Amino acid sequence: MSPPSFHPFHLHLLQSLHSSSNGGGKKDCEDDNGGNEVDAAFWKMVHQFLQEREGLTKQLRHVSSMKRIEQEALLFQKEQHDESTSPPTAKRAKLSPHSSSPLRLSQQPPEPGLKCFGLVGRLVKKRASASETTVQRKTTPYAPILTQVEAEIGVLETKIHKARETLLSHKQQAMEDLLSRAIVEESALLAFGGSHSNNNKNDFQQAQLSLLATNLQLWQMLASDMRQVVQTTTTKSATTSAY
Fold this sequence. Notes:
mainly alpha; two-stranded antiparallel ribbon; 5 helices; single chain
């Protein structure tokens, strides 16, 4: 897992971007700097996720470690089983103490500790499953939050695309207006006045675009951190169910 990129101060900045247009009301309505409606319950869940993230990440690492031990145990047992049931070869054949005929490994006493190793593997599997279930139960409430975050990202990406098109259109229009004016003193003054007005409008739109881009980046950082916990848990659970 990569280090977290979204921290509590990012959450405060994101909240301020959404509440700046409505005077800090209980509900943040859709505005030029944000996307979908975001209520207080959502922010509370995000804050709770940031508090629990470190513990959940440690538990996920613990589950992954136990899963690797379990897989190694299963692989070892399979190799031993395949070896004991395969026909004897010149290298693997052994002589019985009372006979000159080869003695198959399947007829030999089991290697010391092999049964204990299998028992340890089963215990590890049981503990891994229990830990995975616990982590999944803790992360399940964050799944709809992640869905809402991803929806917010989609809305902002659409707004940014439209804002860029509008800004480009206004800049092109301002340039065409300047080029179409007659080059005389009076017309030049008028052109200067029109250009100043267009520049102010373009500056405002550029500022709005910058706010949208900042907003989008914050949501993307939050989504990236949440996916590492929520989707990792979901994937592990689906893999376990497949077996």
